[in-house]
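New to this. Help decode both lines:
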Amino acid sequence: MEDKRIAFIGAGNMASAIIRGIISQGLFLGDQIMVSAPSQSSRDRMAADFGVKTTADNCQAAAFGRVLVLAVKPKVLDEVILQIRDALAEDTLIISIVAGKSLKTLEGAFGRPVRLVRVMPNTPAMVGEAMSALTPNRELSKEDMALAVRLFEALGRAEVVPENLMDAVTGLSGSSPAYIYMLIEAMADAGVASGLPRSQAYTFAAQAVLGSAKMVLETGLVPGQLKDQVTSPGGTTIAGLKALEEGGFRGLVMDGILAAVKKSEEMKG
């Protein structure tokens, strides 16, 4: 990339996570990054944390570099695009992490052909373990797409999906950290009920979830095979699995994710 500069409009947690990832992976230096935010305290925090350039002028950020990340609340998106659309160079790669806003909606707001990627990351980006889904519009080149994927792989894992699957992604990986936190909390509660101190119970539960997830991602085995490896005849694990099945555990998890998918479909614009 000849013009190695990237700008962010918005200075929230996700923008911070992306900046932390791309700096730590050596994709950009602090002085190659500009962040626009209306709050002086937000600008000061970003400059102090990452050594980036800051501005209160969205148009200055839009004109700054080859890549522009839209990281604002959905309710202000139209106003921001109206401000910046004439300041953008024609070859700017625009990345939107604005929840629920479709490519069609974004393209309509710009009012002209733009190179655009819609991305759904999740909050584990804050610790470098995001799962991000990317969907491009028709104006995007292979080089643009490769760059966008590389940026989000700096936060964890990234996959390209067609836009009609973004609601499924929202329900499955976007919302599911909340379900996993609830699972860890319930596991820890059971540990406490069995005599473990609360702090240790959280550690045992969280590490068990982390390790199990890594087994799925790194062994190539499907979850059923890994489950069977833990399950001895007449042992403790099968007793626990039986209780979970009797309580409808799988069905409840599926119902929760499908409810989130349905809500995402209802909310999208």
